[in-house]
Structures are given as structure tokens and as C-alpha cells.
Design a protein that fits this description.
Elements: E1 4-9, E2 12-23, E3 33-38, E4 41-48, H1 54-69, H2 77-92, E5 105-106, E6 108-115, E7 122-129, E8 133-137, E9 142-144, H3 151-158, H4 163-166, E10 188-193, E11 197-203, H5 205-210, H6 213-223, H7 229-239, E12 246-256, H8 267-270
Antiparallel strand pairs: 1-2, 2-12, 3-4, 4-5, 4-6, 6-7, 7-10, 8-9, 8-11, 11-12
């Protein structure tokens, strides 16, 4: 049975239905993906480094976030940013068995339910570093919220290639930002309102390499309200080739007992500039 969580908010409470699944795929020898799917924190990390242990990078990043943000309270946006910085430092500090620094890194994408210092307002804080993705799903339409930090995305933004060409481009695995890659971490950050009912998908690129958005939407249309939603997505990506590790986290959040200004009905009107500039409102 799929677990259901509830989390108290200043203006009511939110119930979460969560499903999560991760698989090594059909080709890779190690699963370098890691994830957290526990309110108020939902993230996917896709490690990189090959023999330099991308699995350790992703595991280290999520371990730091878990320690700092899953203490039973609602974190502030500043606390989330501090946790991301700490995760970056921890990944950069990884060493091999002989004490040599590891050349590794990890993507990090997802969302955190956050509040202000005085607990008056609450938002979703979305975060992204790399090319794992966060989507919204309203039972009809799949919308990508994050913007990939990748060489292919830059070509798409410049208009030099099409979306179809991007899916088979030889540099489609090259990312331009990663946790652990540089001393100063630069995540994309948005604060968006909590709606009465909404669903999210967080996934590594092992899913989006094998399934396009319409194929993902078709799986969610069939399984999006069920306990096997994430597993169904991972199974579909494996069946399509499974050339990489595959991780999916599907979250449905339902707000109950809302009586304050934290509940809004229009995401687009309230969303902070939907671009690639990191910002906190």
C-alpha cells in the first residue's frame, strides 16, 4: 500500500501520496542515482564520475540534505540554500580509499515545502542543478518546471537544434552545472504557491532519455493516482531501452483546512520569474 503522509502548515495541513522507484537499467553496472521522498523534501540526485564513484557523490548529497532538512520542522528557504552549499562542500571533500580527491559530482533536482522565519507564509521551493527534472502533472498536462543545465539545452535555447535532434545529440550527456563541480554552487531556485491539489514528478535523465514528455504523460494518465506510478514510469523506461539508471518520484499533495493566505489558485500569476536565474523571494 502506498504511504500517505500529512504535514502541518500555518494555514492548514497538506497530505502527501508518494511513490518512488529507482533501477539500475539494462546497461549500467552501478546505480548512481539517489533520492529522498519524505515530506517536506523531495529530490533526485544523479551521480557522475564513472570509476570515481558517482554513486558516492549522489549518496553524499542526499545524506547532507536529509540530515539538515528532515528534522520534523518546516525549513526556511535560507536553510535549504545552506543545505545545498553543505552538500556541495561534502561532495567536493570525497576521497578515494588512498586519500586522493575524487573527481565526481551529481545533479540535484526537486522541491521542498518551506516557510518563513515567523511561519506566516508557505511555498514550494523548487531547486535544480544539472539535468534531472521537476514536472507538474494536473491529470491532463505535463509541464516541465526546471530548465536543464546542459550543452544540448544551450543549443536549444540558441535555436541551433530542434527538440527532436536534442534527444539524439552526441553531447546530450554533457551538463554545465553539478553539485561538487565548483567551489561555489549556483542552483536555480523558484518559490511557487501551494495549491489545493497538485502532482509532481521528479526524475533523473534516465527516464527522459527513454521516454518523451507525451510518453511520460501517458503513463501518468494510467497510473498517476496509484501506488505504482513511479514504478510504472521506471518499467516503461527500462522497456524502451534502459540505457541509464532510472529514478522517478511521484508526489500528490492535497491541502486541507486552509484558512489563510498561503492557498492560492493561480500558479502562473504568482510564479516568480520562470527563467534560469537563481532567486529567492
Amino acid at each position: 500500500m502506498k504511504p500517505t503522509f500529512t504535514f502541518a502548515l500555518p494555514f492548514g495541513s497538506v497530505a502527501f501520496d508518494v511513490s518512488a522507484s529507482s533501477a539500475i537499467g539494462s546497461v549500467r553496472a552501478v546505480n548512481e542515482d539517489s533520492y529522498i521522498a519524505e515530506p517536506p523534501l523531495f529530490v533526485v540526485a544523479d551521480g557522475m564520475g564513472g570509476h570515481d564513484r558517482g554513486d558516492r557523490a549522489s549518496q553524499t548529497a542526499v545524506a547532507v540534505l536529509r540530515e539538515r532538512l528532515l528534522d520534523g520542522t518546516l525549513p526556511t528557504a535560507a536553510a535549504v540554500l545552506a543545505a545545498i552549499t553543505a552538500a556541495n562542500d561534502a561532495v567536493r571533500s570525497l576521497t578515494s580509499e588512498t586519500g586522493e580527491p575524487l573527481v565526481s559530482g551529481t545533479t540535484l533536482s526537486g522541491m521542498v515545502l518551506v516557510g518563513t522565519e515567523n511561519g506566516v507564509a508557505t511555498h514550494w521551493m523548487t531547486i535544480n542543478i544539472g539535468d534531472s527534472r521537476l514536472y507538474t502533472w494536473d491529470d491532463r498536462t505535463l509541464e516541465q518546471l526546471t530548465v536543464d543545465h546542459s550543452a544540448v539545452q544551450e543549443l536549444l535555447d540558441a535555436g541551433t537544434i530542434t527538440a527532436a535532434a536534442a534527444r539524439v545529440h552526441p553531447e546530450r550527456n554533457v551538463i554545465t552545472r553539478a553539485v561538487g563541480a565548483t567551489a561555489a554552487i549556483e542552483p536555480d531556485v523558484w518559490l511557487i504557491p501551494v495549491l489545493s491539489s497538485e502532482s509532481f514528478l521528479i526524475c533523473s535523465d534516465g527516464l527522459t532519455k527513454e521516454l518523451d514528455d507525451s510518453e511520460i504523460a501517458a503513463v501518468l494518465a494510467e497510473h498517476g493516482r496509484g501506488e505504482h506510478a513511479a514504478a510504472a514510469l521506471v518499467d516503461a523506461a527500462n522497456a524502451a531501452g534502459g540505457q541509464d539508471n532510472i529514478t522517478a518520484v511521484v508526489v500528490r499533495a492535497t491541502l486541507t483546512g486552509a484558512s489563510g493566505s498561503g492557498l492560492v489558485d493561480n500558479r502562473i500569476a504568482e510564479m516568480i520569474d520562470h527563467d534560469t536565474t537563481p532567486r529567492i523571494a
